[in-house]
Predict the structure.
Amino acid sequence: MNASLSDLQPVLAKQGSRFYRSRPFESMLPWLVLLLLLGLTFANFFLFPYAGFDFTYDEVVFVYSATPPGDHLEIGDRLIQAGSLEWEDYLDDPWQPAFPGYAPGDVLPLTINRDGRIIDVAWIFPGPTTAQIVDRFMELWWLGYVFWLAGTSTLLFLRPRHAVWKLLVAFNYLAAVWLIAGSGPSRWHILGGAIILRSAVWLFVVVSLHLNWLFPRPLARLPAWFWGVLYALAGILVLLEWLNRLPPGSFQIGLIVAGAGIILLQLAHLVFQPAYRKYITPLVAGVVIAIVPPLLVVLRDRLNVPPSPTAPGVSGSLGPALFIYTASMLGIAALPGIYFYSVYMLQAGRPNRRVRRMVRIFLAFIIISALSVFTFAFLFLELEAILSSAWISILLFCLAVLISGIGLFPLLALPALQSTPAFDSAWEHPHLRANRLVSLYLFFALLLVVLVPLVFILLSRFNFPVNAAWISLAATLTTVLLTILGYGRFQQFVDRQVLGIPLPPTHLLESYSSRITTSLEPASLVSLLRDELLPSLLVRQSALYQVSDNRLLLLYAAGLSGADLSPGADLPGLLQTAETMEIGGPVPPDTCQCPWVRELLPLRVERRLVGVWLLGRRDPDDSYDLGEVGVLRSIANQTAIALVNIQQSERLHALYQADIERQEAERAGLALFLHDEVLNPLAALSMQVEPGFATPKFEQGYQALVTNLREAVRGLRPAMLNYGLYSALAELVDELIERDREDVEIRLEIEPTVVRYAAKVEQHLYRIVEQACENALRHARCRAIVVRGRLGETAVELQVQDDGIGLPAGVALNLSQLLIEGHYGLVGMYERAALVGADLKISSTPEAGTCIGLVWIPDSSPAK
């Protein structure tokens, strides 16, 4: 596309500046949430009172320690008092910790109700035991980290930053908090775990309803104050929880509202938005499968037992009912993956075969997981008498691995699925964008997967908590060591295989500098910029214009439509802006008629504008920070020099081609002159000599002169080229055989053909073969020369091979080195091949001969 410079002057006269918005809160949010989760997890394992029994609400549900007769607990006992603490006061006060001040070996006076009898038990506080530690690891606290990864992945990969994005981040982070707080910290009132649980649940209710009202498309337009009222109501409920003004188990009603609301809202999308059914159906199916089991568990808990201050089903005990609770709650781990797949299907538009196959596999795994939960629960209930605690733990661990894999797999796989068309950043639906921070989070997620089971095994085999500090220190040192040794290689792997980054960003300038020196053609420069350098910077939209003869020439455009490149719509004023701004200066968004342009880089050499480089959408945020602008500034400088070199190379190429054509024209003119003005008069002169008057010596000299003149004429312009390349090559071989028939065997191994090519192409290909044969005869000391190949309609393949002494060892067979070393015959062949767009390769081995290969494809020839 060309545009006159005079057409590009009037629009962007102003300079503007873009505010590079830093988002420190967004950068810190994942780590703040992770810090809270780690604190709750620490409390769950190290601040947890290992009392030797476990309870739900006020009922003893598991006993770990063997006690003397009379001073024992039984499953089903009801707690009335523990030491000086009335158990009713403990249940009513979420700030009151259980068994404060008791250490292993202390006697804890308990008052219990056993089948209507009030019994006092002198319970010996046992401290940590392997069974309790194993049960603690088998609780659902780890699900919180699945949702934390989901929230962080949303923060990193989903754009734009509108309401759905914010709600999906909050949805996952709040779920992570209440899942971890709802284990030990809530049940034992550690670090305010009960209050954190209840607050997170009430906020989660409004966020989940708001999210599913808007996703994938708003069901209806609601007044602006509506959601404000709901969030204010949630805030009031949180405040009442902190003031302990609500019944202990009321937050479970919020969980029921949230679960039922998610299902009903997605069903409403399915019914009232038929255009979105192909995207909503998998979402609805996954949500129902994931939410219905835990929703039934919560309903059962609310209907059959009194309110509990703990999260439903979150208990370290392994009784039958609690096993079903725990197993059914595992299904919610699939929720993050379900939302991610829905986003990806919306982004893909009409799902292709791969997308449909992945969605079917994902839903199949969810169904298998749900069936596994109920199957394991049924087997447990039927075989409860013969199953040991170890077998139960193994069943729960298998379920956890299966379902957490379902929740995590989409988060790890979807960043790699960037083959869908790029959407404009203003697109209303959330869509996936690449982010180089994925390597950091994936690395530590994999470390977590490896180290947590290892720590679990070590803690179960060694004395706890005596060796816990040493085990934690070993895990920390292992993390540091693996990070130092393996993160760099892991990042390179993720960049190349997941994000599709061809060049390492850390060595981008070095790679570009080393490769741009060999880019003497626009196509090679464009390929390097468009296909390697800019994808390595995650730049998805760009265009490069060259300024030549007072015009803008489009060298390439990536990720843009024809309308985006219309000079009347987008490019006016860009040249004027480029003339007045510094490299890397931002484009004023309020005055630019090119809405896709984010950065404009003028390319200058000695204050002369040689090009304009436009950069648009860039993953993940369409922004370029100052460090990246500095890298782009260096690249722009090198690109400007490359453009000048290309321009000079093209001029030299044009001059050389004109010189070759002039030489060929002079040769043809000289051949015509010798033929018409010399050979013909000589022939006429010979006819005027009377027979018998010419001496034998005169006749011999006359014939030698005529023969030499005819050979000179044929060398200047082969007459057989008028009849095609094959005829000319056949005549060339015949002439060489006649000239050196006793010393060298010369063969032509080309099938006869009448295929014709452009006259200039045939002329240059003929000259290359002729020069190759002459070089072999003069310098190779060969015994045989073979001219072989194929003259086809779609390609020409020619080889000239000899069995001579070859080129000396160490001779570089590239154009520059051959020119330096004075191999002008080979240089001429390279230059002629370049003139017609042919690929010339020379291979030579000392004392084994030389092979010169030539491949020419008609479409690649500028002389065609």
User: Anything to note?
Assistant: The radius of gyration is 41 Å.
